[in-house]
Amino acid sequence: MEQLKRMALFATVVARGSMVGAAEALGMTASAVSQQVRRLEEATGVTLLHRTTRKLTLTEAGATFYESCRQIVELAQQAEQRLAEQRDAPVGELRVAAPVGFSGPLLCEALAPLLSAHPGLSLRLFFQDEQIDLIESRIDLAICVGLQEDSSLIARHVTDWRMLPCAAPAYLARSGMPTVPQQLLQLDWIGLRQECSQHLTLQGPAGVQQRLRLETRISCNNILAARQFTLAGMGVSLQPEPEIRDLLGRGDLLPLLPDWHLEPIDLYLVTPRRDAQPAKVRYAMDALRRHLLST
Q: What's the whole-model pTM score?
């Protein structure tokens, strides 16, 4: 490392044309600059400068060595500039992970304006409902359901989403619309876990609570698959209200027991723990937070 510092100092001496000029640029004394150049020559075993009382002249070896030193300094300056760009403006590749349900319009609506405003930013998306290792997969930012108990991550709560039990009109025409929670036990359930049953806790009028153990007929590890089976009239599933708002508005899905409510799901923006987040991550978090809060 000391040798690299001396190489940078030597490049400054040549660029400034004198020990005094280099000393002024580096905030050192001329004698200290001269001493460092001498140590560089001793370490390399080559004379780099011809010294006279009037000027400095590069030796042939010094001229060749200077080109390498100059390139090193330029590369270091470029590296600092790139870091500054990443700190101050969203550039480079942004890697975002999210549950499969977000592969619809939500992420596009949130991040498309950011990409349009910053041509130097690119986006790589990873959709999966299983937990992903942010560090190993080099994920910059993840949307997660529920708090992540990992000290290497920082989770920021954004909002809560209502979960609705819902079904297609065709299915309800066959099974009948339930009017009390106990009737949910007679319905075909489409679950998001591989277990054969799931527990449901509903809050009703006047604070009444009802807990049910539901048998699942179809199990999925993907909410979009569960949604498609629900739309096909195969049963009832739990769906986040913002993701199915259009389907509810068109009547493609109908909510069950509107006077009873399920515990909402917590949405978090999760990042690896860093001393400072790059600008691309900060900008993306702001865009996602605004969009999620407006849904």
A: 0.67
